[in-house]
Amino acid sequence: MFEQKMINIIKYLIYGLVIAIPLIYFPTIMMPFQLSKTIAFQILTEIIFTLWIYLIIFNKSYRPKITRMTMALSIFMIVITLSAIFGPDWRMSLWSDESRSLGLIALWHFFILFLVASSLKEKINWNIIWNLSFWTAVAVSLIGISQKFFIFSKDADLWLHILYRGIPERIGSTFSNPAFMAGYLLFNFFIGFWLFKSSAQNLKFKSLIGLGIILITVAIFLSQTLGVLFGLAIGILIFIFWFIFQSHSKILRKTSLATLGILIILSAFFLLTRENSFWQKIPGFKRIADFSFQDDSISGRLITWQLSLNAFKEKPIFGWGLENFRIPFDKYYNPQLLSKNIFGTYWDKPHNVILEYLVTTGLVGLLAYLGIFASVFYVLLKKQLNYKIFFLSAIIAYFIQNLFIFDTIGTYLMFFLALAFIDSYLDDKLLNFSSNPITDNLIARKIIIGVLLLTVLIPIYYNFQIFKGANYEYWGVNYFLNRLSESSLLSFNQALMTSTPYIDDVRKNFANTVKQAHQQGINYPGLEDLQGKLAGHLRLVIQRHPLGFLNYLTLAEFENVFYKYNPDYLKESENLTLKALELSPRRQQTLYVLGKVRLLKGDVSGAYRALEEAVGANLDSAEPHFYFALMAYGIGDSKKGAMELAEAERLGRGPQKIEEFVILGNYVGDFNNDYKKAINYYNTALYLLDNKIMTSSIGRKDILLKLALAYYFDHNFIESKNIFLELKKTIDFKILPIYEDLRPVLQEIGINQ
């Protein structure tokens, strides 16, 4: 009886896991869509594992069977564990960072879920699992589709934030990220067809399943994720060919053949008319139609794949360690990756599963990973299974999509469940564990389950600490955004005191928030002591992750802002920047920081050299030209500034932040006397600020004052007077530091003081 209760609890926890993980998100923690899912998954799996341990102690039939698939997964887990332990950054390997939160620890949880689910076999009702998974995917799809029509802003109610679409024209549903959502839905697309075929329900139920398949398909296309769309296409083709050549039904063979013919005709029509504006209106097809090797995302992948091969050659056996791809990426960084903005230069994964395992776990890890698929294909192709084609298509489609993106919690969940399902129904046992139970004594059993439950409280508590730390960190940022610096300080300090593997993310976020606040004129209490404390935290991050170039750059930029508090900061900042350049040579953003620190030290020629090197690293990159223009204008070299700005704009990089619009307005007005252009910059800055599109360290009144003066110097006295009259309602001009210069302007346009 007690044993059956354990089985029932495990069973319902797995059912709950299938529903909860895709849907769950908690809005008041950092990375609410990713970290929420990981924490919930790990806690549920830990409880499941503990109850299963009790079962395998007292009943040998629940112990894992050594099958081909179990062996393949076990070898894979051992290899990636060794790679993580002996890699250059084992902390990152174990936990990854907050934004991914899927390191070795999470993968071991997935492996445990596989062992439990496969060993319990028919005790788990797999039909219920796949039905729950499919209808949960339908719910995810409906939420995603609703994003297409009901878009909430970032300022919406916390729980409605789930409908906020972070990437324009693409939906992410409860995963936030379009690729994460689409990868999860891909498995469920094929599961839906299996449920449709195997369902013994009435026509109405089959119709509902068909509608669910359509909704999932629509959501995948609305995600516009090329890798998933390609995987879906390959999976469907395998599906069709299977029925053409393997089906015993003549009608089904003819239907499949006709479907293939229609798809070929439609594909040919699409390829011939892909430049037609019609396809621009259809999500999914639009991205395929726009596909080009010159596109930044595509060219970036190709460059990253090339440097991945260079990284593999340096550590070919066990690689650089799981989740450590960014270390060799930075080492072999190619300046061609920088085009219009800096974000294309940060790659923590190569977006190709073969290269990811080749670089991070070496040739041994890649072979172990491919061994999993070899065991799956061996079983599915050798055995006569009624679900064979559905899971074969799903797993091949999954593998194909991972050649262009990477695994997430949604794809891992579906993959490991699929492996457990296939393994649990096979008579493919190579060896059974058959040791006798420890004892049949009821009191001893109760003591054992008590010990197990107490033991599981440790990892559950640690997961709760992760949640608590992320919650404090969230409020630290949120209070800052609402200009409540004292509350922000308290929340960040509480986050620092929380035992979490993501403490280094907290340290960097805390320091960057205080830095940003200072730049916006918001000073935290006790700033002089606080900035010193935070600099110490950033040094600790470097100590714990010495090969992360960005850690050095983060501290260098922090010290560039607070150098007035410590005379040694500028010297240390330059050394940190040079160290960052050692770890990631020719990195343009590092050269920007180097140029800035040299300017602060008064080394103008050294600053020029740094920016010239950044420009020379990739002459077709717009961003270095833009930053060189800002620096040249800043030191009074208006000719060089105008030339570099024109080149940056030709290459597609104009101002992107409010501060940049204002600074350029100042420069083109003061140095080039181009007041019309200055007016345009100031007006754009006001628009971005007034419509809450961006926040700014420069206040609205300051921008209006600059705009009024620009209109004056452009001889548009009416507009200038109107703005000065608006400002007069809230500003006493006489107390302004520039009042003596401002007074004749006010007199000329008729403003009484």
Kindly describe this structure.
With 753 residues, the protein is mainly α. Helices cover 69% and strands 1% of the residues. The protein has helices at 2-23, 35-58, 68-85, 90-95, 104-120, 126-149, 178-198, 203-223, 226-246, 250-273, 285-289, 296-314, 326-331, 353-360, 362-382, 388-401, 409-424, 442-481, 485-496, 503-519, 527-544, 549-561, 569-583, 588-600, 604-617, 622-634, 638-650, 658-670, 675-690, 700-713, 717-728, 739-748; strands spanning 65-67, 429-432. The chain has a two-stranded antiparallel ribbon with strand order 1-2. Helix 5 runs parallel beside helix 17 and helix 7 runs parallel beside helix 17.
In short:
The protein is mainly α and 753 residues long.
Characteristic key phrases:
mainly alpha; globular; two-stranded antiparallel ribbon; 753 residues; 32 helices; 1% strand; 69% helix; single chain
